Amino acid sequence: MSHVTASDGTRVWFDVLGEGEPLLLLNGQSLDHEMWDGVHADLARRHRVVRMDFRGTGGSDAPLGEPYTFDLFVSDALAVLDALDITRTHVYGFSMGGKVAQTFAATVPERVGALVLGATAPGGVHEVERPRSSTLALRQAGTAAGRDAIAELFYTPAWAAAHPDTVTRVLPRGPLRAQRLHFGASSGHDGWDMLPGIKAPTLVVHGEDDVLTPVGNAVLLAERIPDARLLVLPGTRHGYLHEDAARATREVLDFLAEHAGLADA
Fold first, then answer.
1. Which parts of 137-228 are beta strand (E)?
2. pLDDT over threshold 80, residue 159
3. Residue 84: CA atoms inside 13 Å, Cβ hemisphere, count?
4. pLDDT on residue 133
5. H or E stretch including 12?
6. How far apart are CA 223 and CA 239, in angstroms?
7. Could you tell me which residues are beta bridge partners of residue 233?
8. Which residue of 127, 169, 185, 261 shows the fewest CB atoms closer than 10 Å?
């Protein structure tokens, strides 16, 4: 693990595991790299997997003076890739990280091989809204009741009860003000107009019973991004990548294998 310094002096944490074509993982809103624990090791069997913490989370600095934007997150990611001498990478973004991944693929297409968008949405007026109760759960995630609500949004009750450590890893991290900056960046995003311009081969993955980011958003993304492929996993919620890890990871790896050669060797 290490750090790179962004153009504004912010230190951004990253680590690398495995060998092969690089795969950049982008975290959910206010989550740090630990949300990928287990999943990233399975992905690293075929790829050089790069995890990073967005500013405001985990091992990265949390500057609080200016709003966070997805363009800023992309710039931080490029600083990490440049430090690793990676000119072109596959990208897998989850939830808010999926919105950042859309921005990444649309604004610096020459840096992206294949694209995986997990449990995410286009943003703006076209986004299928989550219930107000889900937004309230996000805002109260630091409380005991909020933790239980987040667990229910991510996983089926029996699975959550059997995997308390995984539930802990999907709770917001970082200073409260930074969490608010993440929320503002995500809720203010509208990627609708950029989606048709995404040229990277794209796989959209979503849990069928996701209430936090309703599955209708996956349909919109798959329809809007040229030639995108849609995979809906039955019986799973927002945290499909953990609860149905065997299938989800296999499908992602198979998709990336179809597009071998599009990222750095």
1. 202-207
2. yes
3. 30
4. 83
5. strand 11-17
6. 23
7. 207
8. 261
Q: What does the buried/exposed string (b/e) look like for 209-243 if buried means 16 or more CB atoms within 10 Å of the residue's CB?
A: bbbbbbbebbebbbebbeebebbbbeebbbbbbbb
Q: Is the pLDDT of residue 141 over 80?
A: no
Angle, to 10 degrees, between the axis of helix 96-107 and the axis of helix 70-83?
Answer: 70
CA angle (237 as vertex; 121, 140 as ends), nearest 5? 80
Pairing relation of β-strands 11-17 and 2-5?
antiparallel
Q: How far apart are CA 77 and CA 25, in angstroms?
A: 10
pLDDT at 218 over 90: yes
Distance CA 34, CA 189 (A): 24
Q: Are strands 11-17 and 48-52 parallel, antiparallel or unpaired?
A: antiparallel
- Pick the closest to residue 64 from 56, 76, 74 (CA basis): 56
The pLDDT tens digits of the residues spanning 44-103 come to 999 999 999 999 999 999 999 899 999 999 999 999 999 999 999 999 999 999 999 999
Q: How far apart are CA 238 and CA 76, in angstroms?
A: 26
CB contact at 8 A, 99 and 70? yes
User: Is 54 in a helix, a strand, or coil?
Assistant: coil
